[in-house]
Write a structure and sequence with these properties.
With about 475 residues, this protein is an alpha+beta fold. The protein has helices at about 1-10, 70-90, 120-135, 205-220, 235-250, 255-260, 260-265, 320-325, 360-365, 415-420, and strands at about 15-30, 35-55, 55-60, 105-110, 140-160, 165-185, 185-195, 230-235, 280-285, 305-310, 310-315, 335, 345, 350, 370-385, 385-400, 400-405, 410-415, 425, 430-435, 440, 445, 450, 455-465.
Length: about 475
């Protein structure tokens, strides 16, 4: 394959060309209620070519690997057309191709697998989910449920016109379980999401978690609803990690920044966004997580990037193109969900670090709260620029320093920058959440992870009755 790609790239009239070839095998299982709705295995093979000419990109994806040189020529032709259009838009001769320099590498990267899901029989996977479904439906007042399981093993070959050639194989699996309870027209739901970057054992042994989720959905039918208003909120590692990812991580993706003048004015490196105890990191170079890899989809080595360091905006996430345009270093964050899409700037493993000094214990964190809210897990949410709204998967009142009654689901909302300033305590119990996936630009769900220690936020707007 390496020689075939090299021959296809030879003599093409472009500033830069890259080729990605992908082979994928996957399995899926879906239950709706008691019924098995879908089960099966699949395989796919395809690839794409990206070509760059005078700042204009051409992109061609394909399922048939024959005639690769013609496919490269077509991408180059597209790039010339786009490049000429950009030249007319800008002053003639001023528009040029800009990519941050990266030393080309030749490497073969084996997957880090503990229990390979691709060798686990489909019947065994179904049998495990059957057990979880039985636990759900043995609980009274359950109206319906959804269990969705998927795994994949993907081998990607990447090569470019600069001499880079990389083969990487990655494994991913995830499960999401949603339980819905109903009584007298009242409906409540609880969700459980887990995932792993190469260990089927990660979704085994969830029997107690599934049982607890079903019982909590029923308990929510009689739970109280918090009175909406400003509270001191304590977030568990899962929800705090989702906050770091959704509310701040996306603002750190540099393709979003350099295309938005308002964000350029806000996201200025060196600007303070929180106390000295606040550090937010993103990096695929952190091993063993769903967002981890050795090279991104442009062949750039993975890094570990401080987005906020000691409360100050210290960095952002880049592709080679955005790094060149903003005069910064590439961070290895160009990712594509599959060969049908070009890589764009994406997060990997995003988390709030524990303080360098001893963090605050959970009991200390809630100890001086007269009336507050303890929120755990996630259910959904959205962001719009610096504004966010998240639904917590689980919530409890805090009264006089103690966790008290279960609450109906609550919504946290606010401005991300003022919220970062209001984080006044960070624990030392960092945990990573590997359930779910990230969506952007029509590419979802991309494997990522996020996490945090427990954090405390003063003056957090909590929606209720």
């Amino acid at each position: 394959m390496r020689e075939q790609i090299a021959d296809a790239l030879k003599g093409q009239d472009a500033d830069y060309i890259e080729v990605r070839i992908e082979e994928r095998e996957a399995s899926r299982i879906l239950y709706r209620g008691r019924e098995l709705e879908d089960i099966g295995r699949s395989t796919s093979r395809g690839g794409n070519v990206r070509a760059l000419v005078k700042g204009g990109w051409g992109f061609v994806s394909f399922n048939e690997l024959s005639g690769l040189r013609d496919k490269v020529a077509l991408a180059v032709k597209q790039a010339h057309l786009v490049g000429r259009g950009r030249a007319r838009e800008f002053e003639k001769g001023k528009e040029e191709s800009r990519l941050a320099p990266v030393a080309p590498v030749v490497d073969i990267v084996a997957p880090q697998i503990r229990k390979d899901p691709s060798i686990v029989p489909l019947a065994q996977k179904k049998g495990l989910l059957d057990e979880y479904n039985e636990l759900i439906w043995s609980t009274t007042k359950i109206q319906t449920s959804v269990i969705a399981y998927g795994d994949s093993k993907k081998r990607v070959i990447f090569a470019n016109s600069e001499g880079c050639y990389i083969e990487q194989t990655r494994v991913d699996l995830s499960t999401r379980i949603v339980v819905i309870a109903r009584e007298d027209g009242d409906v409540q739901q609880v969700a459980l999401s887990v995932g792993s970057g190469g260990d089927f054992g990660f979704i085994e042994g969830l029997h107690q978690e599934v049982k607890d989720a079903a019982q909590r959905a029923v308990a929510l039918l009689t739970a109280l609803q918090v009175k909406g208003g400003e509270y001191t909120a304590v977030l568990d590692p899962v929800l705090a990690g989702v906050f770091a990812h959704e509310a701040f991580g996306h603002l750190s993706e540099s393709d979003f920044v350099y295309e938005n003048d308002r964000l350029k004015d806000i996201m200025v490196l060196g600007r303070r966004f929180g106390g000295e105890h606040l550090n937010i990191v993103d990096g695929a170079a952190i091993p063993g997580l769903r967002g981890s890899y050795k090279y991104d989809d442009e062949g750039v080595p993975a890094t570990r990037t401080y987005l906020i360091k000691d409360g100050i905006l210290a960095g952002r996430l880049h592709s080679r193109e955005t790094a060149a345009k903003m005069g910064e270093k590439p961070t290895g964050n160009a990712r594509a969900i599959d060969y049908r899409h070009p890589p764009i700037v994406r997060m990997t493993n995003t988390f709030i670090e524990p303080p360098r000094q001893v963090g605050v214990s959970f009991n200390e964190m809630i100890g001086d709260i007269k009336e507050g809210v303890y929120v755990k897990n996630w259910y959904g949410g959205m962001t719009s620029m610096e504004m966010f709204t998240f639904s917590a998967g689980e919530a409890y009142m805090i009264r006089n320093g103690k966790i008290e009654e279960l609450l109906r689901p609550v919504v946290l909302t606010g401005n991300v920058f003022s919220t970062l300033e209001n984080i006044d305590a960070i624990g030392d119990d960092l945990a990573m959440n590997e359930g779910g996936g990230c969506g952007k630009g029509g590419q979802m769900p991309l494997p990522v992870s996020n996490g945090s220690p427990h954090i405390r936020i003063r003056k957090c707007l909590v929606g209720g009755r």
